[in-house]
Write a structure and sequence with these properties.
Neuraminidase; alpha+beta; 2 domains; five-stranded antiparallel beta sheet
Length: 344
């Protein structure tokens, strides 16, 4: 009997702890007012976005905001390709969540209604905020089929969001895969394909008469360079993406940008510089639709780690703060883009 009471007491304590954590998490979001979670705007050097708020002990792979910064979607996965487990057994590692700004503050992020079986990621809103594009593996055939695009979108409805609809490039498409779809105001869809293991190639599918046409490679200026996780400007005047330096296979990814010239041709990509990129890995850029901020994921670690010998408790404190982990979301003033834009 004593054992039963002890077990029951432990269960109550755990339940109270989980409830308290949930309440604390909810209160964090409800207390924030204004666009972009009411965070103080960043300067010309990248800063962690919403410190200690979005971090879930995993990998924040990509974030996207609607116009005006009043709603966001974020994809979070378990760290190090781990599997989580609960009483139902192990489940896959993708969590596509969203939150919106209301009169009483921001809502607590929750999964989209279509999110289970948790096989979605890399969200990207359309410039009008009416569609959400993302990667999905829920219907991936086994064995793999090159006609499967792995890219889908959901449409905003009066009571929420539609079920995912997979991109259809028409009969005969054998490109396969497709990573990190992003859409322009015209409806044209940009994404990366990996025809070989060496490098990703950014492609574009024109949107005409309500249909997506077979994808085309972008110009040699970009495809010879390589590229992954693109974000296209609504007017298609520039594209940002991540890639490692072509001269080295050991260099972490940086974020680059390519502009169109006066003839509409893509120009040679430029590195976004030290205000954005670091010694560590930077990936999956997103530029807010108001043109103010550049968001991206970075593996940079806590810069406060001292050079002197430290104690175990100090190490535990340093390695458990929000700045350490595989990837977290950073943001920076998008002035860096305008500074590089060609002056005609």
């Amino acid at each position: 009997m004593k054992n039963h009471r002890a077990h029951f007491g432990i269960i109550l304590m755990i339940g109270f702890f989980l409830f308290s954590c949930r309440q604390n998490t909810e209160s964090k979001f409800h207390q924030f007012k204004g666009p972009y979670l009411g965070q103080k705007p960043p300067g010309e050097n990248a800063e962690l976005f919403a410190p200690g708020i979005l971090t879930a002990g995993g990998v924040e792979t990509k974030i996207s905001f609607t116009p005006g910064g009043e709603e966001f979607s974020i994809s979070i996965s378990t760290k190090g390709w781990q599997f989580l487990a609960d009483p139902r057994g192990a489940f896959r590692r993708g969590y596509l969540m969203h939150s919106r700004m209301g009169k009483e503050g921001w809502t607590e992020p929750e999964e989209f209604p279509f999110a289970p079986p948790r096989m979605e990621g890399y969200p990207s809103y359309s410039p009008d905020g009416k569609k959400l594009f993302f990667n999905s593996s829920r219907n991936r055939p086994d064995p793999p089929d090159k006609s499967f695009t792995a890219m889908a979108y959901a449409e905003r409805e009066d009571d929420g969001w539609s079920n995912p609809k997979f991109i259809d490039f028409g009969e005969g498409y054998q490109g396969g895969g497709g990573v990190s779809p992003t859409v322009a105001a015209s409806g044209n869809l940009y994404f990366t394909l990996w025809p070989t293991r060496e490098k990703g190639i950014i492609h574009m599918s024109r949107y005409e008469d309500g249909k997506y046409l077979p994808p085309e490679r972008l110009s040699d200026a970009i495809t010879d360079f390589g590229g992954n996780h693109p974000h296209i400007a609504p007017d298609e005047s520039y594209i940002v993406f991540d890639w490692e330096y072509p001269s080295s296979n050991d260099t972490p990814n940086d974020i680059f940008i390519s502009f169109r010239n006066t003839n509409g041709e893509w120009m040679e990509p430029q590195n976004l510089g030290e205000g954005v990129n670091s010694y560590y890995d930077e990936r999956r850029p997103f530029v807010s639709f108001d043109g103010k901020y550049l968001f991206f994921a970075s593996t940079r670690i806590n810069p406060e780690i001292p050079d002197r010998p430290i104690t175990l408790p100090e190490l535990q404190r340093l390695t458990n703060v929000h700045k350490n982990g595989y990837q977290h979301i950073y943001w920076v003033d998008a002035k860096v883009i305008e500074d590089l834009r060609p002056k005609y």
